[in-house]
Amino acid sequence: MLQVIFESAVQVLGILFISPLIAGIYENIKAKTEFRKGPSIFQPYYELAKYFRKESIVSRDSGFIHRNTPMMVLTIMVLLAFLIPVQPGYTVFAPLADFLGGAMLFTLASVLTILGALDNNSNFTAMSAGRSAIFSALAEPTLIVVFFAVAIETGTNNPYITNADLTANSYLFLSLTHILASIAFLLFFIFETGKLPVESNGLSELSMIEEGRIYEYGGKNLFFIRYSSMIKQYLLGSLLLNVFIFPWGLQAGLPGSIMDIPIMLLKWLVLIVLLVVLEQSIARIRIFKIADFLSLSFILSVLSVTLFVAGGFS
Fold first, then answer.
1. Which range marks the domain in which residue 182 is found?
2. Which of 63, 96, 267, 308 could form a disulfide with 177 if both were Cys (CB 3.0 to 4.6 A apart)?
């Protein structure tokens, strides 16, 4: 029991501390590819500290949901940190973890963010929330179907057991079901973490989506929202690495859980380089073409399940 508690603490604390670093490394490498000096890899820590020191000022027209959404979203992300297999060692909540439940929690966080944007009586954030809801109608089902594909492929809905099965049975990675599910999840990850290059995506543009939803937040509330976004990126990326692409190399046990932290950083460096190359290679798309991108992701996820059910492709 003490070992489980220790491994849980290492995983959750590692997620909380490393997720801003991953965001900083990504921005730094992206700047280098654009021949800019770029910010320090520790810049996200400085920004989070700045937000946390400031007072949260909320409009008097804002409702209960808008005021409490940042804390609720951060709570959901911390809970997911216990459920996502960032490391192979079981956490205290590992027996209760399942893919569909995790997908529902990610969806709940997105829904709360949209409702929070609608609940402050701002036309600007409402416009961004409306666009986000349209795209989420395609993105969130993709996440659920992809998780379902992996669950039926390995015969279990527990992500920790799935991770162990995929590590032991590497032939599963060559199945068409897994390949299609991996591509679908990669496309979902690119959109969900804001890596999809969108035309006129600046802070002052009316076409922004993610920034528009949180435009009315400041101070500690903005700290909670930004921090939640970084944790979400780390959790989804760790799922992509440990379940869909390359689950090998991690170790269980007391010393192994500590050694897994630098191993995950190395995996993330490879993923970040891949994401930067993809982002620089894809031409900027118009905002309403995002639906086509997400439709492709959803079709691939459904096709992966269909091929498995049809038999002969698993």
1. 2-310
2. 308
Residues 95, 253: Cα–Cα separation, whole Å: 17
> Which residues are 198's β-sheet partners?
285
- Which helix (H) or strand (E) segment holds residue 152: the answer is helix 123-154
Give Cα 124 distance to the centre of its chain: 25
Percent of the chain residues past pLDDT 90, beyond the cut: 31
Residues 222-248, buried b or exposed e (16+ Cβ, 10 A)? Answer: bbbbbbbbbbbbbbbbbbbbbbbbbbe
Which is nearest to 99 in space by CA: 212, 244, 205, 260? Answer: 244
8 Å CB contact between 82 and 8: yes
Residue at 92: amino acid letter: V
What single letter denotes the amino acid at residue 169? N
What's the pLDDT at 122?
Answer: 75
- Is 90 exceeded by the pLDDT of residue 212? no
Side chain identity at residue 121, one-letter code: N
Please tell me the total count of domains within the chain.
1
Name the 3-class secondary structure at 230: helix
DSSP 242: I
Query: For the whole prediction, is pTM greater than 0.70?
Result: yes
What CA–CA distances, in Å, run from 304 to 56, 119, 260, 310?
45, 38, 31, 10
CA 292/CA 203 separation, integer angstroms: 24
Contact 9, 1 (CB under 8 A): no
Residue in the structure block whose two tokens are 């600007």: 124
Residue-wise pLDDT for 277-300, tens only, equals 888 887 777 777 888 888 999 999
CB half-sphere exposure, 29, CA atoms < 13 A = 19
Number of neighbouring beta carbons within 10 Å of residue 256: 16
